[in-house]
Write a structure and sequence with these properties.
Layout lengths: L15 H10 L5 H14 L3 E5 L2 H9 L9 E5 L1 E2 L2 H8 L3 E5 L13 H4 L4 E4 L11 H11 L2 E5 L7 E2 L2 E2 L6 E5 L12 E5 L2 H12 L6 H17 L2 H6 L1 H8 L2 H7 L19 H32 L4 E2 L6 E2 L5 E4 L3 H10 L5 E2 L3 E2 L14 H9 E4 L7 H12 L1
Parallel strand pairs: 2-4, 2-5, 5-6, 6-9
Antiparallel strand pairs: 1-10, 3-15, 7-8, 7-12, 9-10, 11-13, 13-16, 14-16
The protein binds pyridoxal-5'-phosphate.
Pyridoxal-5'-phosphate binds next to helix 3 and helix 4.
């Protein structure tokens, strides 16, 4: 096979020159941001959307607008992005790590009730890789104990639970529009909520933030186009592919992996407004979101059809629709599998999610979460993006089977 299959392709705005022209020569006002927020609110079906500069900042703003006391407790899955407990801790709150289900890889809702104490204020379920959590159960527990539910939708833009878009089921939702997400605005995020009062408090906070400079935005644009260039299969096959073959998959995985150090405060470059420039890209992205998600779903279903009986894959729940940010499989001997796959022309990567309850930053809040520990060692992402075609998927399946 001459043409190799990269682990990811990223979506960038189509007209590079038009974008640069807009950045430097257009009048910048809040109109585009308002339009983006309205369109996203219409899409998710919530009253308020507040665009932010990242998923992290979105969570930070929610937590810091709820009048919580120091060391109040937030129940979250142990298997998630390290940025989530980091934001909780930098808000002087206590993360209460809860183990996940081996099947869905989401928080095990049967374990939540036992974690509730007099200090608990929120449940923060992550819809991991796009698969919605068992929200009915979670909402019932929250109602019983009078807790807020904050949905982490960073992986799940377009996913549905019981016919409702995630981000509209709990009290709050937050999204990430980073590179490689369903919507990419070169970094960015959004808060969704029907709570007008808290939405207003968050808007007041954001008004005080600086806009990103043109230089900051330009850096993001170049980064996106460089990644896009090197992940075109024809370019990938003769550049990154031989590099990965020689130096191993980890060299690339580590470049993009999140830092696992403790964040005392949010990094200053993270505390920014969402720019009108990003909003213009975002509006275009929303208009093609469903089409691109449908391609992802079609590709994921093809994998499932061929792999379900031979390998452990992330399960989907009835009454849910996953927008499949990643296609996760669980394998023993992960390093060997990744190595064999790359030798056969398929670039895969291990998970970026961690068992956060066993990280150094969580020393004071450790919990035994054996399923998260096991899953974090076993998950591989198979290539999954709208541009992937049927014959490439069948090729990946063949390599995996062999
Ligand atoms: C599950 C999860 N939550 C939150 C975030 C934070 O989003 P952002 O990178 O936009 O800050 C990420 C990042 O990818 C994530 O994977």
């Amino acid at each position: 096979m001459l043409r190799k299959i990269p682990r990811t392709r990223i979506s960038t705005p189509s007209n590079f020159l038009e974008i640069i022209k807009h950045l430097f020569f257009s009048v910048h006002n809040d109109e585009a941001v308002n339009e983006f927020e309205e369109k996203f609110a219409e899409y998710i079906k919530v009253k308020n959307v507040i665009a932010t500069s990242s998923g992290k900042l979105s969570l930070y703003l929610i937590l810091n607008s709820l009048n919580l006391d120091k060391n109040d407790e937030i129940i979250l899955p142990a298997y998630t992005s390290v940025s989530v407990p980091n934001v909780i801790m930098s808000s002087n709150l206590t993360p209460v790590f809860t183990d996940i289900s081996h099947k869905t890889l989401n928080i095990n809702e049967n374990l939540i009730g036992n974690k509730v104490t007099i200090k608990t204020r929120c449940i923060l379920p992550t819809h991991i890789y796009g698969q919605p959590c068992e929200m009915n159960r979670i909402m019932k527990i929250a109602k019983k104990h009078n807790l807020y539910v904050i949905e982490d939708c960073a992986h799940a833009c377009g996913s549905e639970y019981n016919g409702k878009k995630v981000g509209s089921v709990g009290d709050f939702g937050f999204f990430s529009f980073g590179f490689g997400k369903h919507i990419s605005t070169l970094g960015g995020g959004a808060i969704t909520t029907n709570n007008d009062y808290v939405a207003e408090q968050i808007r007041k906070k954001i008004k005080k933030f600086k806009k990103p400079s043109n230089f900051e935005l330009l850096k993001k644009i170049f980064r996106a186009y460089i990644i896009k260039f090197f992940t075109y299969p024809d370019v990938f096959s003769f550049t990154l592919y031989p590099f990965i073959l020689f130096f191993g998959s980890e060299t690339i995985t580590k470049i993009f992996e999140e830092n696992t150090r403790l964040m005392k405060n949010l990094p200053s470059n993270c505390v920014r407004k969402f720019s009108d420039f990003q909003a213009i890209i975002g509006v275009k992205e929303i208009s093609r979101l469903d089409d691109r998600n449908n391609e992802r779903i079609k590709n994921a279903e093809l994998y499932t059809k061929h792999l379900k009986s031979i390998i452990n894959i992330q399960d989907t729940l009835p009454r849910t629709k996953s927008a499949y940010l990643n296609y996760a499989i669980l394998v023993d001997y992960r390093k060997d599998v990744i190595k064999k796959m790359i030798k056969n022309g398929v670039d895969t990567q291990r998970t970026w999610m961690k068992n956060c309850s066993s990280l150094e930053i969580s020393n004071n809040f450790k919990n035994d979460c054996p399923v998260s520990e096991e899953v974090a060692k076993k998950v591989i992402y198979l290539p999954l993006y709208p541009e992937l075609n049927k014959s490439e998927i069948l090729k990946i399946v063949d390599v995996l089977k062999s």
